[in-house]
Specification:
2 copies of one chain form a homodimer.
Chain A: E1 8-9, H1 10-20, E2 25-28, H2 35-44, E3 48-51, H3 55-69, E4 73-78, H4 79-95, E5 100-106, H5 122-126, E6 132-135, H6 142-153, E7 160-166, H7 167-171, E8 173-174, H8 191-204, E9 208-212, H9 219-232, E10 235-238, E11 245-247, H10 261-268, E12 273-277, E13 301-306, H11 312-323, H12 347-357, E14 362-367, H13 375-379, E15 385-389, H14 398-408, E16 414-419, H15 420-423, H16 429-435, E17 440-446, H17 451-460, H18 466-471, H19 481-487, E18 491-495, H20 498-509, E19 515-520
Parallel strand pairs in A: 2-3, 2-4, 4-5, 5-7, 6-7, 9-10, 9-12, 12-13, 14-15, 14-16, 16-17, 17-19, 18-19
Antiparallel strand pairs in A: 1-8, 11-15
Helix pairs in contact in A: 1-2, 1-6, 3-4, 3-14, 8-11, 9-11, 12-20, 14-16
């Protein structure tokens, strides 16, 4: 403050730019090449920094943050291999259309040619899982690169923008931060898209499916979709996997396309036309010999009312104006769920306990895999909440999603419905929950096997042998989730019946900070 | 056995081919698209299957296996994101020049166009970290693809071969297994390479560095290198990071290029010429402002006696014939280390305890990072053992390396020297150690911070603030490694002084199976 010339590094110019662009959170697992960025964080302020002990925690948390905050977090990663460890959950984030700004530190530009041990093809690593990739070329331009990365991430419907930051572009003196760039809005639906949808509905509403995804699943989107359905007899479904669905009392009893192929085919068999609203053509999660890839019946017409980059809410409103003027939405979810049941653990019982006890404003992170598939019908009348699913199918995102959601929404309780096999991929995230004192209750569905694969193996061969079964079995030795959680600094307890589950949930909801429940499920 | 026509799937033909090619181990984290492969494992037999709870465990274990078995293991991964999770340790394996055959299950070919949630660019994911990539096109050819993958992996000096296996190429009927393909030998060194090295040594031996890497560090290679040094006055060093160094009594007191740049520059400052034997030009691990990338003094000539794909042992033997005929090797490491010291934990004290207690034939897996750098001088006279380092600089490979080494070498004790921050990336590997009853003792150096980054941060800025320090700190909450290990099924205990460390080491060496020691280090 002596009136002299202030100088700053490229890293500081970049951090100041990110803050100026409205970024507020940074999930990080840094290394040596990121130390100038880390050092700049203190000088600038304004970014809440959350350390993840493994990169999958970092990228999954950014996904959860973006889904709940409606804007991107930054993630900070170390070189090509550090980015590689984050890709799986970047894949999931991309399938959720979550905006993420990934900053990947790398060797100084002049050091690359020497092929030091950590040298890797960082752009090549980023490209299959990013919508936008740029390597900063100098400290003069790195701040502008940062502004461009934020713009790219926030371009509807949300993108993965990866900015590679060679160490010298971070440590060299820079002219200063860059101006934020304008953020594009979602494109309006074309009138013809709306008119065609209206014509299809007028021709045979009961045979038409309105398939919702993305922003179409917002409260406003659901309300108009259910109005359209009430007026025309059309069916309404959400996609199989969704980034975020507002649910519970006062919302609508939306259901999803089922995961098991045969069930999905049956569920969709009555439709002659499908109107996609921010959703994709429904397809089988995996292919199976002799079964179709498309879940729509043969000959079913497909019409796109709103692409993911279009304004699905406006499209539904315009369509409702065409076909449902004056029609009120059907009755919203109402009534109060029964008291939580007691007794042996069943899928229905868990759902009933959740329905009774979910606190208002809860954020449910559902990576329950086999255990959680049937939870929707029983929880329609739970207190209002948001339901987040694994969108990209790469298991190992539940705990990180819970972390990111908790950072985005202080004061709301996060409830993780967590398959044990899936939880193991990013179990390190428990420590970040503890450090951040995240209000997150994680229920581990401990069935001690990759149950979904046991089903799939049964589909494949007659009598699976010992080798195959061992590869799908999480026993021998059994995992002790209570000790694991405590080892990472998270209080934990085990439950083997519904009454204990309910007691532990009530207790965890009544206090701050994280809690883990190891629930033995059959 | 009824004389009828036997049929088999593409998966079974592939597994039979891998076994025919001499493969004996498969580290796996499978998903739905790999179920036909998994199912075939039982029908075929011959591949020991080891489940990893996260893909980094799988690829790191394959690296450890290859280093000790001298041949590749197969790894089995699920789709692009599953491969992505394995890339970091494939990077390390590649830098170790370990052969690995990666089998990546993917969607059926006809399902790809539907862009199901797990669809990703698998070839694009593989390419930056593989030397050979192929996507199987049909069940008719998949067995031949497997034979080609093994050949590629075993092509000197060892490669990462990635075979992508669309589900329909695995489940469709196949004509049968393929014949193994010939495995190329390492190329002989050209006479001119040897003659030039001899000329350089004759001109000024004391100013010449013999820098060894790969097979040059075998017992035979070291012996000839030390003979050449004895005859010419040349210096001998191993690279900074090495896949495997035979050490201890009866071997030679080889030292490595130091990690800290200033130390390395000083150590190499006297050399006017450097002869690379299976080694690369020595470079700084990271670049720093104002410091050079190359660790050799300016003007230092560089001559390649053997490239990594050439026979480094033969090259050293030929060079010894030129310059050291009749010269015996210098005295090998001898003497018996003193009894283990007691008292407070210091780096020197840990090294002395190891020197005293390492069992004969031990396999030391060194991911000690800051704690382990000074262990070599004190352990030259330990019982004969192999020393494995992190070769690619991507931390998080120690526990998987220990797993793979234990599978490759039953009956030998694996001793993991493991930094706490690094151990966290693949902590799930503890469970595989327990399940496989691996004879592995893991010493966690619990300094509760990313100590290496604290050093680097200090280099970068004057007064690091709270945000920066928090990002490098593993406390708040402290990790409880004993509980974490027990949670994964591994017995464990804590030590805070050298006497307890020695007692726990002795006890663990006297029994079968894994054990973890949480050692509080300053």
């Amino acid at each position: 403050m002596d009136g002299g010339i202030t100088t700053m590094t490229g890293a500081e110019a970049l951090v100041r730019t990110l803050v100026a662009c409205g970024m507020e959170a940074c999930f990080a697992n840094p290394g040596t090449s990121e130390m100038h960025f880390v050092s700049a964080l203190d000088r600038v302020g304004g970014l809440r920094c959350v350390l993840g002990l493994a990169e999958g925690v970092v990228s999954g948390a950014a996904d959860g943050y973006a889904r709940m905050a409606g804007k991107p977090a930054a993630i900070l990663l170390h070189c090509g291999p550090g980015l590689a460890n984050a890709l799986s959950n970047l894949h999931n984030a991309r399938r959720a259309r979550s905006p993420v700004v990934a900053i990947v530190g790398d060797h100084a530009t002049h050091h690359r040619a020497w092929d030091a041990p950590l040298t890797a093809d960082v752009e090549g690593t980023a490209r299959p899982y990013s919508d936008w990739v740029r390597t900063a070329q100098s400290a003069r331009t790195v701040a502008a690169d940062g502004a461009a990365a934020v713009q790219a991430a926030r371009t509807p419907p949300g993108q993965i923008a990866t900015l590679i930051l060679p160490a010298d572009t971070a440590w060299t003196e820079a002219p200063g931060p860059a101006e934020p760039l304008p953020i594009p809005s979602a494109l309006p639906p074309a009138p013809a898209q709306v008119e065609t949808a209206a014509r299809i509905l007028r021709r045979g509403g009961a045979e038409v499916l309105l398939l919702l995804g993305g922003a179409a699943l917002s409260e406003a989107g659901q309300r108009d979709a259910f109005r359209i359905a009430a007026a025309t007899g059309a069916g309404v479904l959400a996609q199989m996997s969704n980034a975020r669905i507002p649910r519970g009392r006062g919302r609508f009893p939306i259901e999803r396309v089922p995961y098991p192929v045969d069930l999905a085919l049956e569920r969709l068999s009555r439709f002659r036309a499908s109107i996609l609203v921010g959703a994709k053509h429904p397809v089988a999660f995996f292919a199976y010999p002799g079964k179709p890839s498309s879940l729509l019946p043969e000959g079913c017409a497909v019409h796109v009312l709103a692409r993911p980059d279009q304004d699905a809410v406006a499209a539904l409103a315009a369509l409702a104006d065409e076909v449902a003027t004056g029609v009120p939405p059907p009755a919203a979810n109402d009534g109060r769920p029964a008291d939580p049941p007691r007794g042996a653990v069943t899928s229905e019982g868990i759902a009933a306990v959740l329905a009774a006890l979910l606190p208002e404003g809860a954020i449910v992170v559902d990576e329950g895999v086999t255990t959680g598939r049937g939870f929707f019908p029983a929880t329609h009348a739970a207190a209002p909440h948001d339901w987040l699913q694994l969108t990209g199918g790469s298991i190992g995102e539940g705990i990180p999603l819970a972390l990111g959601a908790a950072i985005a929404c202080p004061g709301r309780r996060v409830v993780g419905l967590q398959a044990d096999g899936s939880a193991l991929y990013t179990v390190q995230g428990l420590w970040s929950l503890a450090r951040e004192r995240a209000d997150a209750t994680i229920i581990i569905f401990a069935n001690r096997r990759y149950a979904i694969l046991r089903h799939e193996l049964a589909n494949v061969g007659a009598n699976p042998g010992r080798t195959a079964l061992d590869l799908l079995d999480l026993g021998n030795p059994d995992l002790d989730w209570v000790r694991i959680a405590q080892g990472f600094g998270v209080e934990a307890a085990a439950a083997a019946d519904l009454a204990t589950l309910a007691d532990l949930l009530r207790a965890s909801f009544a206090r701050r900070g994280p809690f883990l429940i190891e629930l033995a499920v059959p």
